[in-house]
Amino acid sequence: MKKDGSDWFAIFNPKVKRVLDVSLMHTLTHESVVCCVHFSADGKYLATGCNRIAQIYDTKTGAKVVVLIDKSASKTGDIYFRSVRFSPDGKYLATGAEDKKIKIWDIRTGMIRRVFDGHQQEVYSLAFSLDGRFIVSGSGSKTVRIWDMESSSPEAKVFSDSDSDSACDTGVTSVAISASGHLVVAGFLDAVVRIWDAQTGALLERLRGHRDSVYSVAIMPDGKGLVSGSLDKTLKYWDVSGLVAQVKAKKDVGGTVVGLAEGKKEGESHCTTNFTGHKNYVLSVAVSHDGQWVVSGSKDRSVQFWDSRTAIMQWVLLAHQNSILSVDLSPAGNMLATGSGDQQARIFTAATHPPVNMNLNRLQEQNMRRMENAKGAQAAANEHPPAKAGWRLRLPSQNARVRV
């Protein structure tokens, strides 16, 4: 089944029962590429990051309510905000940018409350701990860092992998921290997902399986699994339940978790599911609050919504004229946000769809034709240059800018 909007459409998989619907709520036009989007914990606001500016929108009205600009920043060149994250209490917005700094903004006043400075290359990803005390950052300088929001010390705990020092592509593209606060996860340009003990910094696992750089990671709400998206055009679901159980058991008795450097065996966690369907790089992934759904954004300009348990695509959304650089799902699970190279962010509803009585056997051929037509439309769109072709996404491992 196909649903058409004025300048977007969604195709629903005819092979599965339709349980979700999607509708456009707001189109938020920016003056530069929208690199990142993030919902507040209560879902009332959406933050976006682009060149030299972060903005906050009211998700109900679509109105811009806060504009954050660092007037002390260098006036020359581009400084793209590559990550924006609300603190869990909604008081602060953290931004990571190409100036290598992490800035904590007081949303009420619009002022910078604190600056964390230590990365040697651009900051590409941020994540708050559930209690809001710690913020995790990843950059092109091969390291993951944890910063204490309550400490007066400017120093961070640095996480790295000694075995990757000689690798050519070890920039960090994406970070996440488990709800328990025990594990830190990062995606790397060498196609590996790494997991550390958040308290000790011990490297606990390397997840290998992608054939190209891992560009996005997201942890399931129960902490027992995680999803990664890669430039190899796939997503993978990794079962880390055994590792989580080991860590919890040690923490419960005050013990220390043994890391790979101390003899822990690599590969105890493994990939259980592959998500295939994108025609180009997977640049962003997110999971729903209940862990039921996975959403992905790609260079192929599509957003795909997946069942996390089966890896079956539920629907594909075509609503942008350039790469989907960032996706996020609201904590309440009823909204989807996208950020794109076409200088737009969009907010969609992703609501439960009432049961539909239909004869799938009778309609399957017709619906499959619609799916093929959608693929054809997407392929035709990909033959044309991006609407905003002057911008290039800088990969952490490269000095050149690569068209996305």
Summary of the model, kept short:
With 404 residues, the protein is mostly beta strands. 9% of the residues lie in helices and 44% in strands.
Q: What is the tally of helical segments? A: 2
Unreliable stretches covering 5 or more consecutive residues: 355-392, 396-403
CATH first level of the domain at 10-31 and 121-261 and 268-354: Mainly Beta
Output the CATH topology of the domain at 10-31 and 121-261 and 268-354. Answer: Methylamine Dehydrogenase, Chain H
Q: Specify the overall morphology.
A: globular
Rounded Rg: 20 Å
How many strands?
32
CATH level 4 superfamily of the domain at 10-31 and 121-261 and 268-354:
YVTN repeat-like/Quinoprotein amine dehydrogenase
Q: What's the mean pLDDT score?
A: 87
**CATH architecture assignment of the domain at 10-31 and 121-261 and 268-354:** 7 Propeller
Structural category: mainly beta
WD repeats: 83-115, 116-157, 172-206, 207-241, 275-310, 317-358
Region (Disordered): 374-404
InterPro entries: WD40/YVTN_repeat-like_dom_sf (IPR015943), WD40_PAC1 (IPR020472), WD40_repeat_CS (IPR019775), WD40_repeat_dom_sf (IPR036322), WD40_rpt (IPR001680)
Pfam families: WD40
Task: Explain what you see.
The protein is mostly beta strands and 404 residues long. It is 9% helix and 44% strand. It has helices at 241-252, 360-382, and strands spanning 2-4, 9-12, 20-29, 36-39, 45-49, 54-58, 64-68, 81-86, 92-97, 101-106, 111-117, 123-128, 134-139, 144-148, 157-159, 172-177, 183-188, 192-197, 203-208, 214-219, 225-230, 235-239, 270-275, 282-287, 293-298, 302-307, 313-318, 324-329, 335-340, 344-352, 393-394, 401-402. The strands form 8 sheets. It has a 6-stranded antiparallel beta sheet with strand order 1-2-27-26-25-24, covered by helices on one side. The protein has a 4-stranded antiparallel beta sheet with strand order 3-30-29-28, with no helix packed on it. Strand 5 and strand 6 form a beta hairpin. Pfam families: WD40.
